[in-house]
Amino acid sequence: MTTRVLCIRHGETAWNATGRWQGHAPVPLNEAGLAQARQLGAYLAARALPIRAIYSSDLKRAMQTAQAIGGALRIEVQPDPRLREVDLGNWQGLTHQEAEAWDGQRYAAYRADWYDTPPPDGESRNQLKARARAAFDDITARHAGQTVALVSHGGTLGMLIESLFGQIERPTLFNTSITVIERPDGSGPWALARVAWTPHLDEAPLGETW
């Protein structure tokens, strides 16, 4: 039986709208984000997909999105801190421009090699990739042959995709977009079935802001 994972980015926040780095900050969804989450929940409920479980980053914007979906599907959300966004340390709450102006030397080093160079008191992309993949592997082993939803963040889902498929070209993971990852049997390779899919939205929301 096919194991299917619906990887969902959280809804829009006010910090998304201003290009501000969120990291682990408890930023809530704005009105647009709440509407997106409700629309996604209604869409999934209408499709009657056999979703057996919903796992979510425990950060507020992800949990609000997951709870809107869970409410529509009557499934309790299970928080998993490993699905959090990248820890941006001392740069959390800044924009790219503010981080560069305030901490130019370290920002330049980070931009030159963000896979191994973390922000001050934060984590690198490779550290993020390792924890996101560990969560994915644990959850899919627990739900082999089932369909589950993971609600997370743009940076986290991007690194998860890389851990599975390498550095591939992909569209922006818009707010409340669905990326579908499938394994037809218990031992074969994972396949990327859909990327950044937003069938529940009339217009694509904002794109990447961590």
Low-confidence stretches: none
Sketch the major β-sheet.
6 strands, mixed
What is the CA-CA span between the terminal residues? 35 Å
Helix count from the secondary structure assignment: 7
The fraction of residues assigned to DSSP E strands is: 15-25%
The class by helix and strand makeup works out as: alpha/beta
Proper CATH architecture:
3-Layer(aba) Sandwich
> Could you say which overall geometry the principal axes of the C-alpha atoms support?
globular
Tell me the total number of β-strands. Answer: 6
Number of domains: 1
Please sum up the structure shown.
This protein is α/β, with parallel strands linked by helices and 210 residues long. The protein has a single domain (3-87, 124-197), classed as Rossmann fold (3-Layer(aba) Sandwich). It contains 7 helices and 6 strands.
Would you give an account of this structure?
The chain has 7 helices and 6 strands, in the order βααβαβαααβαββ. Strand 5 (178-183) and strand 6 (191-197) form a beta hairpin. The protein is of the alpha/beta class. It is 39% helix and 17% strand. The radius of gyration is 17 Å and the shape is globular. Strands 3-2-4-1-5-6 form a 6-stranded mixed sheet, sandwiched between helices.
